[in-house]
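To the wet lab folks,

You asked to see what we're planning to order before we commit. Fair enough. Below is the target structure as tokens, and below that is the sequence we designed to fit it. If anything looks off to you, flag it before the synthesis order goes out.
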């Protein structure tokens, strides 16, 4: 039996192309995040001792972010809060970089984090990331 909720969900669910496009954007963003990870690993050996731990932590964080975007690419409507956490962080860093453009690396950070903010927003809209908060979204049915 089809319920009114089923009809409303079907009418607002992402189309196949929207879902696929959003997932591809998240996969590309995950892969792109591995570039600064590799770059960070190559820099660790040349750092002064007082900077190694901070830079190591920063470098490893790229793996965490890549993993978060990869999880969204695989199951965009099964990761409650993941979209919002990524957007909060990336938008906050982008805004901060915009305010301190005279600081070394701020323009590059503004561009890089601005781009991943945009791809994440696009993925969120295309995949209907807010559906994770609907009742039953994380249930046994396959409504990724």
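Sequence we intend to order:
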């Amino acid at each position: 039996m089809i319920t009114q909720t089923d009809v409303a969900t079907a009418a607002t669910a992402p189309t196949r192309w929207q879902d696929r496009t959003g997932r591809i954007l998240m996969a590309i963003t995950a892969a792109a995040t591995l570039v600064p990870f590799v770059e960070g690993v190559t820099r660790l050996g040349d750092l002064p001792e007082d900077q190694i731990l901070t830079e190591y932590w920063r470098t490893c964080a790229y793996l965490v972010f890549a993993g978060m975007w990869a999880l969204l690419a695989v199951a965009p409507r099964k990761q409650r809060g993941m979209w919002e956490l990524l957007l909060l962080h990336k938008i906050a860093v982008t805004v901060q970089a915009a305010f301190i453009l005279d600081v070394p690396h701020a323009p590059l950070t503004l561009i890089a984090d601005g781009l991943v903010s945009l791809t994440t927003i696009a993925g969120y809209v295309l995949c209907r990331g807010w559906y994770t908060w609907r009742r039953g979204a994380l249930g046994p049915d396959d409504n990724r």
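Structural context that might help your review: DSSP finds five helices and no strands in the chain. The chain has a mean pLDDT of 89.

Thanks,
Computational group
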